[in-house]
Design a protein that fits this description.
This protein has 16 helices and 27 strands. It is α/β, with parallel strands linked by helices. Helix 7 packs across helix 8.
Length: 562
């Protein structure tokens, strides 16, 4: 895209799919890596049109909410696009949800229908009595390899037409694909076709610090995300994006997938992140770009160096946050790192791409087109360049930001205090207007009058040769002030060689004295969401409940020097 062009009045998912079917026709949009199955732009338009029409024919009412509970697969993306293009509201659900959490997602979002992968059907059946609102159940049969390489055992799916105990009608997903290829009429269009300002999707936040909120996306904002990503991250029709993060989260769906769609690019879809398959998938698919998060970056960096490290077509990768070893990562794998700042809750605010100054690597880049960025103190007053504060955003593209949180007007209003979206993130802007992310405000630690960035402490700990991953957070000990605690996982084979005292000495050499952790907790694994975000609140709660279990430098008599 040569320039940023976005007109909300014409921003409808259905219109985009139909226009792209004309423009790109039989060009491959999606390749499903486990089987090599492909989906063209033309087929994407036809099949999503059928899904939308048949949902209405089979009883989903106008503007009805449709839950989608699946892991990555082509049918998941077809369901997402097919649902919202017809004027229904699509609700992608985290596939790890079960029990009370799954009930919360489906009930809170007012879902009247559910499109579910067969392997996940038992989870729904366990809570079916709590969801009487769901009247239509569409089951997708997805072959999944088991851990031993064989196909997973089939799930007993009730025959199509069966009624569940709560009266929901069971359908095979194949029924949604029945009909002529040009079928477009559906129940909703007889009432009124969707407008650009209508809600198209509810996407739940990760809920790492509290109950998940459902973010409302209009049709226009979904198109805006793709347009914004395609422009600022330089997608072209020649690109192939490797997508391995879950499609029920913003990074994969709004970033990689919508960005590719709006640019006329292609995606290579994997079931999930696999460190052992990552570069093989990249090479086999001809991928030219991918999006990664912190945990993924660390896993790739810890792979043993290989002669094949540059044997691929990737030239750009989007990483957030940018690791301290970014330059070495670029050199090793022969690719340019891009980055960004933004929140699924609102919009993307800053972009760092191949045109950005290379001495600013590590930053989030410059403010995006028609998006303003401010750094403020706790009273919402601007701070000087170079001074950390909360990052605020304002999107000046009409309908370019989210509509707020579903059924949470107070939370929506609070997040937009003083007419600016409050991100809850801390950062600063330099004199060249580049935005630098520091940490979540809730992750910031205040110890004896000093503000400590958990992110900065984590970056230093990661450079210790025994450490695989780390999470830093505050705990309360004898005083009412914060103490710095760090949970760490070790690299394979380092268990016998690791010493907390040695890690403290490493921190003492590389951090200000007040930033050196007091507590060290060696854990087998970090609790993470499926989008690979560490659930720090779980680590913090576990540590706080039994501090005596953690290694304590004060108790061990280890001194920190200034």
């Amino acid at each position: 895209m040569s320039e940023f062009r976005f007109d909300a009045r014409h921003a409808l998912i259905g219109r985009v799919l139909t226009n792209h079917a004309v423009t790109y026709g039989d060009k491959t949009f999606l390749t499903w890596l486990p089987s090599g199955e492909t989906l063209s732009y033309k087929a994407l338009d036809e099949q999503t049109s059928l899904i939308g029409a048949n949902l209405g024919r089979l009883g989903v009412t106008a503007r009805g909410h449709v839950g989608i509970l699946m892991d990555n697969c082509p049918e998941q993306l077809l369901a997402i696009f097919g649902t919202c293009r017809a004027g229904f509201v699509t609700v992608p659900i985290n596939s790890a949800a079960k029990g009370q959490l799954l009930t919360y997602f489906l009930d809170y979002a007012d879902c009247q229908a559910l499109i579910i992968e067969d392997a996940l059907l038992p989870r729904y059946m366990e809570i079916i009595s709590t969801l009487p609102r769901i009247t239509q159940l569409f089951v997708v049969r997805v072959p999944r390899p088991a851990r031993d390489g064989a196909e997973s055992a089939p799930v007993n799916v009730p025959p199509s037409g069966t009624l569940t105990a709560t009266g929901a009608t069971v359908h095979d997903f194949a029924e949604l694909l029945e009909g002529p290829g040009n079928m477009t009429a559906n129940v909703n269009e007889e009432v009124r076709g969707p407008r650009f300002s209508d809600v198209a999707m509810l996407m739940f936040t990760s809920g790492t610090t509290g109950p998940s909120k459902a973010i409302m996306f209009s049709h226009a904002q979904l198109v805006y995300w793709g347009t914004d990503v395609a422009f600022h991250h330089e997608y072209t029709p020649d690109d192939v994006a490797y997508v391995f993060l879950p499609l029920f989260h913003g990074n994969a769906l709004l970033g990689s997938t919508m960005g590719s769609l709006m640019a006329g690019s292609a995606i290579a879809l994997a079931p999930r992140f696999s460190v052992s398959n990552f570069w093989r998938h990249i090479r086999e698919s001809g991928a030219t770009v991918f999006n990664g998060v912190g945990a993924v970056t660390n896993f790739l960096w810890l792979l043993p160096p290989s002669e094949q490290d540059r044997d691929h077509k990737v030239r750009r990768c989007h990483l957030a946050p940018v690791p301290g070893f970014a330059k070495e990562l670029e050199e090793r794998f022969g690719m340019t790192i891009m980055s960004a700042f933004g929140l699924t809750d609102y919009c993307l605010g800053a972009a760092y791409n191949t045109k950005s100054r290379r001495d600013k690597l590590g930053s989030c880049g410059l403010p995006r087109t028609n998006v303003q960025v401010r750094i403020v103190d706790e009273d919402d007053f601007d701070v000087a360049p170079g001074t950390p504060g909360e990052i605020l955003l304002r999107n000046n593209n009409a309908w370019g930001a989210s509509l707020g949180y579903y059924k949470m007007p107070e939370a929506t209003l609070s997040s937009r205090r003083n007419l600016w979206f409050h991100t809850g993130d801390r950062g600063w802007i330099d004199t060249d207007n580049y935005v630098w992310y520091t940490d979540r405000i809730k992750d910031a630690i205040r110890r004896r009058g000093e503000n400590i960035s958990a992110f900065e402490v984590e970056e230093v700990i990661r450079t210790h040769p025994a450490i695989s991953d780390v999470a830093v957070y505050p705990v309360r000990a004898e005083t009412s002030e914060d103490e710095v605690a760090a949970s760490v996982t070790l690299r394979p084979g380092m268990e016998g060689a690791f010493s907390p005292a040695d890690l403290l000495a490493h921190c003492n050499r590389n951090l200000a004295y007040f930033m050196v952790p007091r507590y060290i907790d060696v854990v087998d694994d970090m609790p993470k969401t499926l989008s690979h975000k560490v659930e720090k609140y779980k680590l913090r709660t576990q540590a706080q409940e039994n501090l005596s279990r953690l290694w304590d430098r004060d108790r061990a008599g280890v001194k920190v020097t200034r």
